[in-house]
Amino acid sequence: MNAAIESVRRLASSRTARAALGAALAVAAVAAVCALIGQQPLPGEIDGKPLSKRIASSTTPPGANPTTDDSSSSIVQLEPEQLPGFQLRTVRVSRQEWPETISVTGRIELDRNRFARVSALVPGAVCRLCVEIGQRVEEGDVLLHLNSREVGRAKLQFVQDQAALEACEQMYQRRRTIHTNTIDLLASLEKHQDLDAIEQQFRGRVIGNYRQQLISAVAEMKRARADYDRVRTLSDTGVLAGKEGLLAKTALESAKAAYQALLEQIRFDCEQELLAASQKRKQAETALAVSRSKLFLLGFAAEDIETMNPIGEGDRVARYVVRAPIGGTVVARDVVLSQYVDTGSPLFAISDLSSVWLRADVFEKDLPHVHGLEGRTVVFRVASFPDREFTARVFSVGSVVDDQTRAVRLLALAENPDRLLKPGMFAEIDLESRRDRRVLVVPASALQHHQGAAFVFLQLAPCTFQRRDVRVGRATPEKVEILDGLEPGATVVAAGAFALKAKLLSELMVADRRKGAGRP
Q1: What span, in angstroms and rounded, lies between the C-alpha atoms of 211 and 217?
Q2: To which H or E segment does residue 77 belong?
Q3: Which residues contact 120 (CB under 8 A, 6 or more apart)?
Q4: Distance between CA atoms of 67 and 110, rounded to whole angstroms?
Q5: Phi, psi (rounded to 5 degrees) for 487
Q6: 182-201 pLDDT per residue, tens
Q7: Cα separation, 347 vs 333, whole angstroms
Q8: Do the Cβ atoms of 100 and 369 come closer than 8 Å?
Q9: Short-list 215, 150, 222, CA closest to 188
């Protein structure tokens, strides 16, 4: 390796060849750095110190003045022709807002807004199970079948009420027809139309018993009038005494009164019978509506009720189907085959796992970090996918500190389209405070490390760079917080810093080897 480095230096003495040999020099430098980082033994010591300590002592400690007597050993000097080969990029150090962040432990839970517990609405025995735990179901899918006497009675009662309503409807329609025809007959009789014409007019029209009563009353009245007319004629001629005429007149008036009373009674009775039929029909409609509502309460759909045929179902009349109220995944099953369940007994639990809740208990000392956090997004990670970050939107921050845990509950909604997040998982949540502060920041690519020290390269001139040790704070894959060692406005190398580090360490190693060999 020493021969390669010496060969490179002799070739680089020619100014025109330096640019062409820049890449070779960088390769040799990287090889030297790799050997140094790998802590391979370095032959020789300088002033009784190993070379590693010699390099470490050549850097400026954090907070110290960088311009010391040994500062020349932290300088990297490039020729203008070498700059393109190093592909350097520089940035100015500036202060940026970096929110205060803490990490709290959370837990993945079921989304309670997309969760349903399926309970038995009727008592019965489980006769068939249709789903298992972990199975995906859609809304309306059949979960199980029950045999329930209550369901059978409800179905049969509904059929009975249907039949009763049909009978009441037929009776009402008959009474309505009789009422209409009777009223028309009364109107014709009040006009004193001829009985034969009336009989011809109402022949075939349903009137019921009222026809006979009215025709008989009319006939009796006409007979009484004929007797009166005959007696009056004989009395006027002296054939009969006046007493006979008086009796005939009385009989006629009595027949008229009886006829008028019959008209009024028939009209009243007709109205009352129609009203009674109407009331019975309403009662039947109410009974059927109650039976239908009971079936609705048992979970039957409207189309199932309308097409229901309990008589034709036979021994399946008591069969009751439990359906999924929502689409999702079956996360719990609390019944087995042939088990008898009561009303309200838990059967299944279904949850839509396309979204989950993220729950965390935030202690009192960390409450400033959750102030005003509702509606904002938090980042969290789970152990199953350590290299992946998930996000959740906070929708609830508790207003009361729990007496037992002395913490406030935080709830956030996380979308879970790939079903990677499983309820019960623990999560590490990053909470950012709204009280942001401005800190000194450099790109993460600018920071280099060697023997436990962190440093950057300052650009002193277009081709001159100096190592500057720094003390770092928080870091992300993109940026690093600088606590000490830099000032705002300084220019640091953001890209190509590793190549400068390799060149610096290779030059120090060569210099130490020369001193160890006693060469100038």
Answers
A1: 10
A2: strand 75-77
A3: 146, 322, 341, 342, 343, 344, 345, 347
A4: 61
A5: -125, 150
A6: 888 777 777 766 666 777 77
A7: 6
A8: yes
A9: 215
pTM of the complete model: 0.55
pLDDT tens digits, one per residue of 218-269: 777 778 878 777 777 776 666 666 667 677 778 878 877 887 888 888 888 8
Contact 126, 334 (CB under 8 A): no
Model pLDDT, residue 34: 42
Instruction: Give the sign of the dihedral formed by CA 343, CA 344, CA 348, CA 354.
Output: positive
Give the list of residues 6+ apart from residue 206 with CB closer than 8 angstroms, or none. Answer: 174, 177, 178, 181
Give me the pLDDT at residue 303, please: 86
Contact of 413 with 353, CB cutoff 8 Å: no
Phi/psi at 326 (5° precision): -140, 165
**Distance between alpha carbon 150 and the CA centroid of its chain, in Å?**
35
Cα R_g (the chain), whole angstroms:
53
CA distance 185 to 204: 13
CA angle 93, 98, 101 (to 5 degrees): 145
- Residue 131 structure tokens: 């789903």
- pLDDT at site 240: 62
Helix, strand, coil share (%) of the chain residues, nearest 5:
45, 30, 30
